[in-house]
Amino acid sequence: MTAVTAATTGTTGAPGVSDTAVAAEQAAYEAVFDAAVAADERIEPRDWMPEAYRASLVRQIAQHAHSEIIGMQPEANWITRAPSLRRKAILMAKVQDEAGHGLYLYSAAETLGTSRDELLDKLHSGRQKYSSIFNYPTLTWADVGAIGWLVDGAAITNQVPLCRCSYGPYARAMVRVCKEESFHQRQGYEALLALSNGTEAQHAMAQDAVNRWWWPSLMMFGPPDDESTHTAQAMAWKIKRHTNDELRQRFVDIAVPQAEALGLTLPDPDLRWNEERGHYDFGPIDWTEFWAVLKGNGPCNDQRLSKRRQAHEDGAWVREAAAAYAEKHTGQHGEGQA
Ligand code: BYC
After folding, report:
1. How far apart are the first and last CA of the chain?
2. How far apart are CA 77 and CA 80, in angstroms?
3. Cβ distance 256 to 266 under 8 Å?
4. How far apart are CA 165 and CA 294, in angstroms?
5. Mutate which of 56, 61, 63 to test ligand 1's pocket (most atoms within 8 Å of Cβ)?
6. H or E segment to which residue 76 belongs
7. CA-to-CA dists, residue 111 to 41, 60, 159, 165, angstroms
8. What pLDDT does residue 22 have?
9. Angle at the Cα of 214 from the Cα atoms of 59 and 218, rounded to 5 degrees
């Protein structure tokens, strides 16, 4: 992009420079940034950017990264009990993909000047969030299918527009994540289809999973627009391209015909096509439940965080070994420098 790079910025904070000169310089940088965003150019790590833009990106990208690695837990719960070798191999690949998504996203956040250690520390101490969806349990094998179809389906709906996010590293990470999420979504749909077309008990198991995951999947898109604190600014900066309610509606419109093709129903008596709007109407979402889950009171919040902290502690020796290896070979500390 043509924005001013941090390397070329000069007078701010220099001795003897007046406040007026600093303010004028700041305004000039801001104007270049605003013009780049307006022209749909990408903002890159070394470009000047408003501190609030940086902070908002770190918040969203970190929350997204945390969701990917916490999301491994409910899925991994079924690796040892997958019904066939083929299903087990697919599920293991999917869980590994989630770890990879976490890695791309933590790396994207690091380009904004925040270390992965700091972000993980904030996750472990409850100062940063992860997606509400992963605080629900995976009770049966059908939940793996429902997560793939609905949760990954919701994730794709939310994340495809993020491929056009104004911040380059986040947008580029999203391209690869979305390709992999598409595969995840299809494997979930296919697993549910097999159950739906199976025995009566298998069909009932698939229906039960869909009944439990439907409403939490709609909550993934975040609070309704009139309660969303970040949407207006995030859209002005072109971090977000659509509001929470717009994406939620898009997801419902996609999911309803898919449910019909699966031979399953969605647990909402108010769900019906609205000819005038050209969209499906749907019933009220229980936002009290959503806010309770965000406050830490979902069915699995404690379990997810304590397992994550334990995994981090258990991995300490790997981080130490990597740092020792790096020091031995390059004389420098730090992960990934070997
Ligand atoms: N869960 O102003 P709002 C995945 C918070 S990973 C928890 O609308 P924003 C997958 C929000 O952070 C899925 N918290 O916020 C992984 C804010 O609180 P703070 C994750 C939520 O950022 C593995 C407050 O509520 N995807 O799919 O404009 C396996 C007000 O909200 C949630 C992403 O993270 C929630 N659901 O919009 C399978 C995508 N919703 O931060 C699948 C990237 C809202 O002020 N993120 N909050 O304390 C986004 O697109 C946006 O951040 C959101 C929220 C749409 C999620």
Report:
1. 32
2. 7
3. yes
4. 25
5. 63
6. helix 72-76
7. 18, 14, 20, 15
8. 87
9. 35
Q: Are 162 and 100 a contacting pair, CB within 8 Å?
A: no
Q: Is the pTM of this model over 0.90?
A: yes
Which amino acid residue places its CA nearest to atom 37 of ligand 1? 222
Burial class (CB in 10 A: 0-12, 13-18, 19+), 13: exposed
- Residue 70's pLDDT is 98
Q: Please give the structure tokens belonging to residue 288.
A: 């009290």
Q: What is the pLDDT of residue 8?
A: 44
Residue 196, token pair as written in the block: 């739906």
SS3 243: coil
Q: Is the CB of 97 under 6 A from ligand 1?
A: no
DSSP for 17-56, please give it.
Answer: --HHHHHHHHHHHHHHHHHHHHTTPPB-TTB---HHHHHH
Tell me the CA–centroid distance for residue 64 and ligand 1, in Å.
Answer: 7
320 Cα–ligand 1 center, Å? 32
CA–centroid distance, residue 241 to ligand 1 (Å):
14
- Check residue 189 and give its pLDDT: 98
Joined tokens for residue 276 = 């005038």
Identify the H or E element spanning 274: strand 272-274
Taking the centre of ligand 1 as the mean of its atom positions, its distance from the CA of residue 216, in whole angstroms, is 13
Q: What is the largest CA-CA distance in the chain?
A: 80
Cβ neighbours around 139 below 10 Å, total: 13
Please list the rounded mean pLDDT of every run of 10 residues in the chain (338 residues).
50 66 91 97 97 98 98 98 97 97 97 97 97 98 98 97 98 96 96 98 98 98 98 98 98 98 98 98 98 97 98 96 92 52
Helices (H), 39-151: 51-70, 72-76, 85-110, 116-124, 142-146
The dihedral built from the CA positions of residue 13, 17, 19 and 24, taken in this order, carries a sign that is negative
The pLDDT score that the predictor gives to residue 228 is 98
